[in-house]
Amino acid sequence: MSKKQQPPASDLDENGTNEIDEKNTNQEIPIQLDGFIESDTVQLTDSSVDEINADVIEMNESSAAKIVVQNLVMNRSGAGMVKAGNARITEGGAGLVYGREVSLENSMANIVYAQNVQMNESRSAITVTRKIEGDGNRAFLLISGKVEGSVESSVDTLRALLFGAAAGLTLGLVYLLQRLFFGKRR
Q1: For residue 47, what are the β-bridge partners?
Q2: 45-51, long-range: CB within 8 Å, 24+ apart, which pairs?
């Protein structure tokens, strides 16, 4: 959604008329929309929206707090929460991305939860997926059934399982020792 800028009244021609000049009508000015947008197709350029629900969304240099969509294309844009069938984020960011197919290109997401993830030169704090592909990526916590390409992670699936087992064993031992030394409490 974009507004076209109209020429000011001071732009009168030599006849004293205010004819619209083509070069002025193609300029876009940023807008901010409060509330909820629901439509089949939404195109945002240099805009900000609270919530969008649509079948197809194309965003360029825009932001949204919450997005629910079947197909999303974000270029140099940001979103707080995205729930999508297919999402492609290029040079953008998102807080939470939940979807079937998610693609991040030179982007960042706090949490990615999807069936399949394609990441190239991107970052995420937590990624949970069946399959992840791509190169030059970093994830703090990666839980994935299959990894293709280079994904650097601080905590991968094996380490998360080992941590969970060690934590469970430690808590079990502490509980057992407490019962042995201090008896059963009522």
Answers
A1: 31
A2: 45/1, 45/2, 46/2, 47/1, 47/2
**What pairs with residue 67 in β-bridges?**
52, 82
User: Is the distance from CB of 153 to CB of 138 less than 8 angstroms?
Assistant: yes
Q: What percent of the chain has pLDDT over 90?
A: 52
41-75 as b/e: b if 16+ CB within 10 A: ebbbbbbbbebbebeebbbbbbbbebbbbebbbbb
């998102």: which residue's tokens? 94
Give the Cα separation of 146 and 35 in Å (integer).
40
Cα dihedral 121→126→131→137 (10° resolution) = 20
> Within 10 Å of residue 31's Cβ, how many Cβ atoms?
15
Task: Please give the model's pTM, rounded to 2 decimal places.
Answer: 0.69
Note the pLDDT tens digit of each residue in 14-62: 555 444 443 433 444 455 666 678 888 999 999 889 999 999 999 999 9
Per the listing, tokens 């650097």 go with: 152
